Amino acid sequence: MSQSSTATPPSRLSRFWHKWRFHINALLLLIPLGFMPKYFADVSLFRGDSGLGEREIGDVQVGPWSLRLAELRNEAPHPSGPAGYMKDFNAALCDACVEQVKASYLRIGKPRSLRAAGVIFFGTPYRMGSQLPVPEKTKADAELWITMEGWDGSMHQASIPLSQASPATIAWLNKQGAKP
Question: What's the 3-state SS for the chain?
């Protein structure tokens, strides 16, 4: 009684895998390396090694205080679900006003009161961030208003043209059909 074993020949997929498995695995290791430069640029930007943002707007004098303002990304506003379109800005208070400023706000259009001052900057005084809502119907000649509140209760405001603060946003608004 002899038993004969019938060996099935290897399938095409099995032959392909055994022949190319090293190359496929090496490729799986090399593909992420192509994304590393962008990753390191983003890490440098978020850590502050490459400045406040991709595009520095400059110093803005707000009453007796000043702050450095920058766009986080030099691009059009991004959709943020039901909140609409958002634009990210970063700021840093001057060294002399760090102890005096309680809060800083950012808004498109002049605020009616402190209750409508806009979105608050969050973070440390040396690197604050803010996500500013940008309505699609914003006029191209709109102004970006900065409101700063001091610990003594004083409130100061300043404005800069939106075209100076974010040319990419103006281009996006023009594409949306805003009128100057």
Answer: CCCCCCCCCCCHHHHHHHHHHHHHHHHHHHCHHHHHHHHHHHHHHHHCCCCCCCEEEEEEEECCEEEEEEECCCCCCEECHHHCEEEEEEEEECHHHCCCEEEEEEEECCCCCHHHCCEECEEECCEEEEEEECCCCCCCCCEEEEEEEECCCCEEEEEEEHHHHCHHHHHHHHHHCCCC
